Amino acid sequence: MRWARDSSPIWFTERTDSVRSMIGIVSYGVGNLRSLSNALEWLGESCRLVERGEEFDAVTGLILPGVGAFGPAMEQLKNSGLDRDVQAWVARGRPLLGICLGVQLLARRSEERGKHEGLAIVPADVALIPKRPGIRIPHMGWNTVTRVRDSVLWGDLRSIVCYHVHSYALAFDEQAASEWVIGTVEHGQRIPTMIHCGNVMGTQFHPEKSQRDGLAVLANFLQFVRQC
Amino acid sequence: MLKRRMIVSLLWRKVGIVQSRGFSHTNVVGDPKVAIECFNAWDADEIILLNVERDDASLSQFLNLTEYVSYHCFLPLTVGGWVTNLDRARNLVRHGADKIVINTEGFRRPAFIRAVSDVLGAQAVVASIDVRRESHGSERVYLDRGRQATDITPEKAAEIAAENGAGEIYITSIDRDGGLQGYDTDLIRRVVAATDLPTIASGGVGRWEQLEEGLRAGADAVSAANVFHFTEQSTRKAKTYLRGTDFPVR
Fold it and tell me: What does pTM read for this prediction?
């Protein structure tokens, strides 16, 4: 028990199933992937870094992480051909979770330092969070995520507080929002920060950095992968 | 609504976690591993781990510690000390750091802040500004663990950081450091106003009310070091205090 001093790990339920699953973490450049693999390991899940499409065959669920700027990240994905591999994975109905910049990369395009095309898996664009008085950009820190729609990613969770760090955010039109957005935060305006439609999910926050609430969300994704 | 953060700063030397007073490090307060375990479970919102060793021969040992801490805490981890080139910053990230603290090199050479920001992203760059008030009353930013004076004002340093792509500011009063008399709230107020960046207040907390004073001065996050080592469950108690204020906390 790693949190030896935590007396109430009630959010963590023992796994009772015996399905073998293996999570692939898409690795395409710099960034701290260690925290994510630590979190998955702590939840009792096996995971591996995947750098080429062929390696996707060995995994049952995929996580697209990411920090930094949209343009360079997208370029890295394209250079390695991983952009098409991820699109093909989704087209085959396999489960995908985008985290932080990873969820933004799923969008159609971003306006971060120039115009960039995204993976166009999610019908949204990425735009700068508008500056308002008293609102600091980047949106950095713990914010309450409000459940706006049911999803397996929420499971039994009602409201969670998770660690965000971003200056850009997904923007949906009303129709797409009703199909995709399952959680929002307030930061000058309402920002979509949890999405789910079919086999594609994403969190703008870092579940692997959000202690028990974040780990519970990751556990829900793993549960979904096992049922896929 | 965005919460105000309460951050535990841990100052590391080869001998262990140390206490600091006016940037002199004397008392060893314990094993970093035990400290991390406690703070992780007890309501800290973020951990800042600083290598304050006298020379950079400590780097590999510090990388191991970073890796250990990252493995054990599912919290944002900010790491710094002796980050003088891009490789060192990258290496810390590879060992599990989410954000890198830049101090000396960043103000000697602001292009370094830009370089790290371009590679790791602005969100990963924390510009640390250490301020000392001179005997005649003027304030100056100090580099190299409080040893080298510059002619930069705190506000100017904040502007330099923001212009060069830092994502956050960590403002420390060297005079208040370890004094347990509370933050230099006037300094914090001015540095917060100087940029739009989230700002972390540091230096001088001895009572939980002083964390609240830092928030009143406009800090987005309040950090403390020594005071968290004095009692059992200290971060939990500090958080309980902050929950009783009108600031949103986790």
Answer: 0.90
